[in-house]
Amino acid sequence: MISLFVTRWFTLWNNVSCINFFTNTDLELLDKSRDINVKSLVWTFCDIAHDFKCEYDWYTFDASQSVFLSILCANVWKIWNYMNEDFMTWEESILKKSNFLSFDIYNYVDESTNKKTSTNYCDYTVSTMDNCDLSYFAPHIFDEIMNDFINIKQATSMWIEKLDDTFDKEVYANRYVKNHFPWYQEDICESKYYKNTCKYLKNYMWQVRNLLTTTKVIDVKNLSKLENIDCENDFDSNILYCGLLWPQKMPLYSLLRVIYNEYMRYDLFMSYYEYQLQNNIVWSNKFNYTTYTKRDEAVSANSQKAYKSQAQTARSKQAISDSMRSLSKIEYALPIHVGFLMYQEDAILFMKSLPKIYTPLRTLSDKLQNVQDADS
User: Where are the domains of the chain?
Assistant: First the structure.
């Protein structure tokens, strides 16, 4: 199982290897949680993982800047080791929600009936959280974060990176055309020739801007208030802001940097959770470690959770790939679509104007062909 950890991440940062998070020392600490319960398992992981930082190529992996770990660890009182405390004040928080209850992780699915119950198995106020199936619930958190990331980047790729009260969609429509069609430097919405193209772009900009208002986890308005961040030279000081809101010529590359940082933390936690399930049956609520009963049921239950954890991680990875592919298609296909809209309006205008030109020329042609005919 440890091979899961050592085959995914590479290189060094301050003598810390990205493939070496689960050293023998760390494994011993993680295996010796304070108490034998799920809450303690998460608490111990969060306590060890927060200062783990490494780098590969142009990508920095910094646990202290991970939104996923911040939310996960907030529910075992380890939040301050992650997101900057300045971002976590109640009014200025960059997270709209951080506790399990707000992610609908208080409803436990009864596997025998496949129905939800209202018992708060994953509530951080519960002493042990033993019935909290993290193979089912952890992806709930990660998927919402990724959905916000993709939506935000779709907006910022149109240079809409702030939630201003005075949003002018016409300004962004004009800017889009100027950036993608350098030969046309006029304001397209001021032109009498491209009214339909302007209307389409304004509607599109408004819809994209609304993506910033409907995020579920990231508060874009508070995140955009950060100042004096030099993303060009110091991207790694604030991966979240620079990866999502920094406008640049390669927006998908900056998005990848923030996504990889999140996925690595998610993958590491899920891998360790699998490791614990498969190597220690005491993590199963089916097993009574005081009387050592129901051992077979516990092994079977843990194996199912471990398999589900692996499947969820793979599914999340595939969803990220599909989303990046969709964003890439939008980035390259939208300018072509807008160009065809402009061409269509040019063609329609030409056809409407053609009779005014063609009829006199045709009449003149007939006269010239019969110039000696008095009747012509």
Answer: 3-158+205-331
